[in-house]
Amino acid sequence: MRASRTHPESTIAQLQKLLIGGEKRYTLAELAEQAQVTEQVAADFWRAMGFADTHPDQRIFTNEDVAALVDAQQLLASKVIDESTLISMLRAHSYISDRLALWQVEALVEDRARRLALDDTSARLVMLDHMRMVQPLLEKQTIYAMRRHLYSLLERTDAEYARRGRDEYAPNRYPLRRSLGFVDMVSYTSTSARLGPMALARLIKKFEYLARDVITSRGARIVKNIGDAVFYIADDLQTAADVVCALVERFNASEDILPVRASLVEGYVVSRSGDVFGPPVNLASRLVDSAPQGGVCLDAQTAQAIEAAGWGEEYYLREIEPLPMQGLGIVERYLLNRRNTITPSV
Q1: Which end is more exposed in the chain, N or C (fewer Cβ atoms within 10 Å of the end residue's Cβ)?
Q2: Burial class (CB in 10 A: 0-12, 13-18, 19+), 186
Q3: What's the pLDDT at 253?
Q4: For residue 53, is it left (φ>0), alpha (ψ between -120 and 50) or beta?
Q5: Strand segments (E) across 21-83
């Protein structure tokens, strides 16, 4: 029998001690007093962390919340960053941590349901009971992954800016030259309407898994998953061309997955809040919508860059009908194929 939620030996009480440092003893005003900041500063911190505003009488904060708020204020006092940057970083932590927690919990629920042959409710209760055993490892892996990815980004940044020409520092130009595009499933909307929730979840999971496997193993990165689509990016055109062709080939050869279409554009972009923006992103989004099933659609500038690179032994390009695109005018389009693969019909 499960103990009452308020019992000190209940699962949730033990998780409270493990994850947030024990007793919820402070109101927002008391949190601010303990951290020696104004109540507004404390409220801004809590909101930036992604949590709902609290009632004045609600005791929700622990000693760990006090310590985190004090650490944030010490970072500001050091002048290493300003308040705007701190809020941006807190929001980043909030967004990523919320997504990560959801992903990990749902993965554990699925694991318990599959391996123990449980219904969803039972699997979630078992997950709660088992969380104390797996949480320390999850936390260690999270810190490890963050440090590894941070170093990887810093290493790429150092290499890129060491070889940049002075002409690339134009003040009105987007700062990052990247090759990017989208891959999306064809007929997803109509198919998802026919599938049950578990079948739809399996479809999305397999799509994301295959996409992530191909993209990361070949040296590119996923910017974000958008349901039936993946937004990928690479530091150079050669890597991106290899990745996008491999994606289409992998999906076309896989069972129990919808066919895909893709786009590839090279150009200058800006990165903010973990996302990527700029004209090439908008163009790539339009091109994937116009691509034929199994095709990789490019704009003329990207196609010319591939031709100029002399990769004719590996790839070939075929010009297809230009299309009018709102805000972009008439866009010349090309299809990219690896040699010895089937050319999609248009």
Answers
A1: N
A2: middle
A3: 86
A4: beta
A5: none
Within 8 A by CB and 6+ apart from 167, the residues are: none
What is the CB neighbour count within 10 angstroms for residue 96? 14
Distance of alpha carbon 142 from alpha carbon 153, whole angstroms: 16
pLDDT at 1 (0 to 100) = 43
Best CA proximity match to 223, nearest among 215, 158, 100? 215
Token digits of residue 66: 């006090």
Contact of 183 with 259, CB cutoff 8 Å: no
Cα-Cα-Cα-Cα dihedral of 232, 237, 242, 248, to 10°?
Answer: 50
pLDDT < 70: residue spans in the chain: 1-8, 165-171, 341-346
Single pTM value for the model: 0.77
Contacts 24+ apart (CB under 8 A), 147-156: 156/235
Specify whether the CB–CB gap between 231 and 247 falls below 8 A: no
Q: Which of 141, 284, 258 is nearest to 206 (CA)?
A: 258
- Measuring CA to CA, how many Å separate 104 from each of 142, 207, 226? 11, 18, 19
Can you give the three-state secondary structure of 94-132, one letter per residue?
Answer: HHHHHHHHHHHHHHHHHHHHHHHCCCHHHHHHHHHHHHH
Report which residue type is found at 46. W
**How many angstroms from the chain centroid is the CA of residue 13?**
32
Phi and psi for 233 in degrees, rounded to 5? Answer: -150, 150
Q: Where in the chain is the domain with CATH 3.30.70.1230?
A: 176-338
pLDDT at 191: 86
Closest CA to 341 of 241, 191, 226: 241
Joined together, the tokens standing for residue 33 give: 């007093």
- CATH architecture of structural domain 176-338: 2-Layer Sandwich (3.30)
Note whether 330 and 323 are within 8 A (CB): yes
